[in-house]
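Illustration: Putative selenium metabolism hydrolase.
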Amino acid sequence: MDELNRICKDYENEITDFLRKIISIQSYTGEEKEVAKTIKQTMEQLGYDDIIETEYGDVIGVLGDGNTTILIDSHMDTVVVNDADQWKHDPFGGDVVNGKMYGRGASDMKSAIASSVYAGYFAKKMGLLTGKTVYVSASVMEEDFDGFALKNIIEKLPKKPDAVVIGEPSDRQIALGHRGRALLEVHTKGVSCHGSAPENGVNAVYEMSEIIQRVNELNNTLYKNEGQHGSVVLSKIESTAVSLNAVPDECTIYLDRRLANGETFQVIEKEMNTLIEGTKASWNVYDALGRSYTEKEFAMHSFMESWAMDPEDPITVAMKKAFEGATGEGSKLFHWNFSTNGFASTAKGIPTIGYGPGIMKCCHMKDEHCEMNDVFDATRIYAKFINEFNN
Ligand SMILES: [Zn+2]
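Result:
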């Protein structure tokens, strides 16, 4: 595989230019049109066998037509920049300083797009595609709707993947999974009346206050669990009253509940029923509404269970070999703290593993950057993974 090192070396400038180009195109969630076009063009120029586009605007490059099917997924949307004046480098400039490229999406996760697009190309160039079908996906809207796009992609692909690689940044470690995520709403109703005589009404916010206490207590209890634990936070509260001189008749709180292994819907259902016990409140799972750049509207049911791959699973073993072969270093396994599109593939029972260039603590931060050497290494790691993984 010295051949792979040589080819990758030859293409370092081209990979760098491609990454700079896609960083320079702003692509906030639901606004990925231009970056999608550029990624598609690059796949065409690199001689991808086919390119599939979904109704939501995802771009999936196809290579080979063998039986073992591998999907490498990166999302092309980023979080917004609202602190540009505090950045040392233009967030859409792609400046390279001391081997680091700066810009929104450098770590989360346009570097993985660059690595995976070129890894597919190298795999083809080197003849590593015998018996393989490789899908390289650049997916939409992950930041607000993690799992939604990838679920749809998997359902639309001609072949169901045997392995999915999630390219979110992993600090040169292999990610075996992450906690699940549920967004929950709790509602209380009151009786509106004039604010000058509140005794005539029922205040929906006061009805909620007992529940808010319980949310905080629940979070403290969850932290007492050994090992991986769930968490819950009240992330938003809203109430409606006919005016500022009236008793509010409705109150809603939103809970961001992170789910440990084994915290299924049944577990959360019981927990939520206990949370509102003795009150007149109701609760439900939040349906997040979205609209893609292709102008398709959708609702995403916000309940995704945690996932964790076995360290001895063939997909883990293949990724370890790929990492060790490409870097000459020993591999480390860990679990992400954040959530990813991996929800979608694992919910469909597809073995899924995480590895991506980029620095986790840079995500969503000013001066986001990535090490270009990590990008080149990830390119070779993905190419080797394509070679190593067999169904
Ligand atoms: Zn991300």
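Reading the tokens back as a structure: The longest helix spans residues 106-125.
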